[in-house]
Amino acid sequence: MGVTIDPKGLAVTIPWPNRSLSPNARVHHMKLARAKKEARDASYLMAYAAIRNMANAPALGTDRLDVVIVARPAVRRSRDEDNLLASLKASLDGIAMALCVDDSRFHIQPLVVTEPDRDNPRIDIHIQEQETK
């Protein structure tokens, strides 16, 4: 099963998620709330800027939107992809807010973890209209 990225879709790059957002993290509820707010707000601003910079913003008129997540960690090590995806919940909420859509329309494709990028660990999120089969 291959994942394709539509060049006409929306591409948003966000920083690597804060450790506090991991479901395995045991942090104070206020620290967790602050981390979620920061992730949601940063993702909103980055998605809004990406939408404004697109010459032909995608219509995103379909009921379901494919979300392709490409993770570029700082170091090579084994990762629990479920926890990484859960860490991105607040960020995906921020992107949905910028698109003015309900995040229930997001259809998450299998997570892709690439080679490490020590200088710039990040998450690339591509949102595109769902392929018709």
Explained architecture:
The chain is of the alpha/beta class and 133 residues long. It has a single domain (10-129), classed as 2-Layer Sandwich (60s Ribosomal Protein L30, Chain: A), CATH 3.30.1330. The chain contains three helices and five strands; from the N terminus they run βαβααβββ. Strands 1, 2, 3, 4 and 5 form a five-stranded mixed beta sheet that branches.
Q: Quick summary of this structure?
A:
With 133 residues, the protein is an alpha/beta fold.
List strands and helices in order, with pairings.
Elements: E1 10-15, H1 29-53, E2 65-72, H2 81-87, H3 89-99, E3 106-108, E4 112-113, E5 122-129
Helix pairs in contact: 1-3
Shape: globular
CATH topology: 60s Ribosomal Protein L30, Chain: A
How many domains? 1
Helix/strand class: alpha/beta
Radius of gyration: 15 Å
Query: Under the CATH scheme, which class?
Result: Alpha Beta
Q: How big a fraction of the residues is strand?
A: 15-25%
Jot down its keywords.
alpha/beta, globular, five-stranded mixed β-sheet, single chain, 133 residues, 32% helix, 3 helices, 60s Ribosomal Protein L30, Chain: A, 5 strands
